[in-house]
Amino acid sequence: MGLLGKLLNKNKESDDQKELRLYEECRANEAPQTDGSACFIADDAFPIAGRGVVVAGVVAEGTFSVGDKVMLDDLSGELRETQILRLETFRKVRTSVSEGEEAGMLLKGLQRKDIKQGDLIIK
Q1: Which of 17, 30, 81, 85 has the most CB atoms around its CB within 10 Å?
Q2: CA 46 to CA 49: how far, in whole Å?
Q3: What's the pLDDT at 64?
Q4: What structural domains does the chain harbor?
């Protein structure tokens, strides 16, 4: 597009900008309704006999700490309460993890079948 075309279309959104805006609006409407404190997106789960299940994933927002009471949202509307017993990032034991970090959470009282990829853990 030439200079004249850019000048005439300066107030119009490009197709890419419009698509990005619509996507962000859609994602904002899908966000879990929490008090804004924390959200973790599950990628995989591994059972630990006698302890619970380790959920691997990424912290999407906020901070999680050992001992926090959290809710498992399986996106079907059912919420299950559990507690974080341990946190690890790349084989390092942590007391807390924050937004953007990939982590593993040992959760109390859950089984492998309770967690699917994409489930949310919210605080």
Answers
A1: 85
A2: 10
A3: 95
A4: 38-122 (2.40.30.10)
